Amino acid sequence: MSTLEWVIWHVLGYAAMPVIILSGFAAVAAICIWLLSLGKDKELS
Q1: Is residue 23 situated within a structural domain?
Q2: Number of domains within the chain
Q3: pTM for this prediction
Q4: From what superkingdom does this record's organism come (predicted)?
Q5: From CA 22, how far away is CA 28, in angstroms rounded?
Q6: Does a structural domain hold residue 45?
């Protein structure tokens, strides 16, 4: 593996970690908000 390939794979690897963590956090937050909204009283009186 050349130095360029090594650099590319390491940059992709280190860039993927925060993307995976943040997208997982956002997905869990969205699912939780959706589940909480199912039990919310929809009528305002």
Answers
A1: yes
A2: 1
A3: 0.61
A4: Bacteria
A5: 10
A6: no
Q: Which two tokens stand for residue 3?
A: 């130095």
- Read off the pLDDT of residues 1-35 as tens digits, 9 standing for 90 and up: 899 999 999 999 999 999 999 999 999 999 999 99
Element spanning 45, H or E: none
Rounded distance between C-alpha atoms, residue 5 and residue 12, angstroms: 11
pLDDT for residue 15: 92
Q: Classify residue 2 by its DSSP letter.
A: -
**pLDDT tier at 44 (50, 70, 90 boundaries)?**
low
Within a domain: residue 28? yes
Residue 39: the pLDDT is 83
Residue 17 lies in a domain: yes
Domain that holds residue 8: 1-38
Q: How far is CA 16 from the centre of its chain?
A: 11
